[in-house]
């Protein structure tokens, strides 16, 4: 039976008493720490543009970078652990400095009229679509 108190050795594994415990440890290692640093995004086609939402709970606005380059929208986050660890006796410390980038290709994204807002841990980027102008001019016949 698995212990109720999580135990991790220097190598991140606990002493296993069954095959199920070993499998649980492998799944824990597969999901941390790199995979847990990515943030989820939603992309919605609104008809005349796109609305991209990135869920960035606990991130400061100044740690976020958003750019559109030839149709590729990139959202980058760089968070630094600025807390001094001297004299502290952590039993468990999971917060560390990290960076993550997510991107999505929006084939008909316009470079003008972009906007972004960050509130309650959610970054919302609005990207208008390119309005195709017709180069055809109707000529009246006299």
Automatic annotation (TrEMBL):
Q: Which Pfam families match?
A: HSP20 (PF00011)
Lineage: superkingdom? Bacteria
Q: Which InterPro entries match?
A: A-crystallin/Hsp20_dom (IPR002068), HSP20-like_chaperone (IPR008978), Small_HSP (IPR031107)
Q: Where is the signal peptide?
A: none
The record places domain SHSP at 32-142
Q: Which Gene3D superfamilies match?
A: 2.60.40.790
Quote the SUPFAM superfamilies the UniProt record gives.
HSP20-like chaperones (SSF49764)
- State the similarity comment: Belongs to the small heat shock protein (HSP20) family.
The protein here is known as Hsp20 family protein
Query: What organism is recorded for this protein?
Result: Collinsella ihumii
